[in-house]
Design brief:
By secondary structure, this protein is mainly α.
Length: about 325
């Protein structure tokens, strides 16, 4: 073709290319744009690819280089992987995690019931009957628990021991939460078992120590990290139940396909629970065994409890109102 025909082609297509360039320099990831902008960018990308093919066939190298660069930038924006950002992790933990938990509140409610009901019943049964406790845990284990809380923590604990115990608490608590979640692959039965088991054991331990006269010591030790740790274990159980239910109620998919459809939400729940377990381990390692007055520890417990409730109840609500319709709509369909 002649240069004049190339000029006519450029004049005809220039506005479309400029529109695509404007979408590429919005200064934010395309997935955060309005649905109309995402759709328009995809359409313009397809058209610029067609223009590039035509330019390669009949026009000069300058136009080909320009269109090739424009198409490459659009492709990376539409199909490239997102860069890892700490802001993205904050978005997940602070907003997406509590929104997902509220959307799947049924599993969270069941998880609370199967954990706390055995906890309360076994605690009361232990207070009434020492024989009941000895049928659940061996006498040696009960004696160790009694000795652990006999002296209290008025004198605090060595800082090096605190660091060692914080690492142990991370390992132990993550292991408990992982079992509560991962065994949900057994159609949810494993999660139910571990929730009941953990609630039963904790209830017996609390009941035995209280029965021995050291209830204040164990309560003031647990009150600081309990709101984070126990809630995280329950959330892990809820995630396991959701995974198990996805294998039962497949909505016409294969079981693997049904499980994949839940992966996004399960990831939110597990990352959120992991964040709570890390906080719990730090508090349990350094704050809970400190020699601070009991009144200070109980005031911190009230503050931590209020924080967890506010996080789970209000996290992401205001931000949800400003999300693109594609995201909020997709969330509704997933629920």
């Amino acid at each position: 073709m002649s240069l004049q025909n190339q000029d006519e082609f450029v004049a005809q297509r220039r506005e479309s290319w400029r529109e695509l360039e404007r979408l590429l320099v919005l200064g934010k990831e395309l997935h955060r744009s309005l649905p109309a902008d995402i759709s328009r960018a995809a359409s313009l990308y397809r058209s610029v690819c067609a223009d590039l093919m035509r330019a390669r066939a009949v026009f000069g190298p300058d136009l080909v280089r320009y269109l090739d660069g424009l198409a490459g930038r659009a492709h990376n924006l539409l199909y490239g992987t997102r860069a890892y950002r700490l802001a993205g992790l904050w978005e997940l933990i602070a907003r997406q995690f509590p929104r997902t938990l509220r959307r799947r509140w049924q599993f969270f409610a069941v998880a609370n019931a199967v954990f706390y009901l055995p906890f309360v019943l076994s605690l009361l049964a232990t207070l009434v009957s020492a024989q009941f406790a000895e049928t659940v845990l061996p006498p040696s284990a009960l004696a160790n628990m009694e000795a652990m809380y006999e002296q209290g923590f008025d004198s605090g604990r060595d800082i090096h021991e605190n660091s060692q115990m914080a690492g142990f608490y991370v390992f132990n608590n993550v292991g408990i939460a992982f079992r509560c979640f991962a065994t949900g692959v057994l159609f949810g039965l494993g999660s139910l078992f571990y929730a009941v088991y953990n609630g039963l054991i904790m209830g017996v331990v609390f009941g035995w120590v209280i029965r021995a006269g050291h209830g204040v010591n164990i309560m003031t030790f647990v009150c600081g990290h309990g709101p984070f740790e126990l809630t995280a274990i329950v959330i892990s159980t809820a995630a396991g139940l959701q995974m198990g239910w996805a294998l039962v109620q497949t909505h016409g998919r294969t079981r693997m396909g049904s499980l994949r459809s839940q992966a996004h939400e399960l990831g939110h729940l597990i990352v959120g629970a992991a964040a709570m377990l890390i906080i719990a381990a730090i508090v349990e390692g350094y704050w809970s065994p400190s020699g601070l007055p009991n009144q200070v520890k109980w005031a911190a417990c009230a503050a931590f409890t209020a924080f967890v409730i506010a996080w789970l109840v209000f996290g992401g609500r205001g931000q949800l109102l400003g999300r693109p319709a594609s995201e909020t709509g997709g969330a509704s369909r997933a629920a």
